[in-house]
Amino acid sequence: MSTKLKLKGNWNELKGKLKAKYGELTDDDLMYVEGQEDQLLGRLQKRTGVAQDELKRMLFE
């Protein structure tokens, strides 16, 4: 997986959209640290069951 992913847009806005779409997500699930995009994707995939490719499109493209 590429470590050169850059979040699209404002992270706070993206967090809000993800929480609205996937109500089971917690603030801990959505904790983002620059350079740790792979860990974020892994947590989100585990909690939502959504494929990493779809999550990448939502967050990075």
From TrEMBL:
UniProt name for this protein: CsbD family protein
InterPro entries in UniProt: CsbD (IPR008462), UPF0337_stress_rsp (IPR050423), YjbJ_sf (IPR036629)
Organism of origin: Negadavirga shengliensis
Domain CsbD-like: 6-57
Gene3D superfamilies: YjbJ (1.10.1470.10)
Pfam families: CsbD
Annotated family: Belongs to the UPF0337 (CsbD) family.
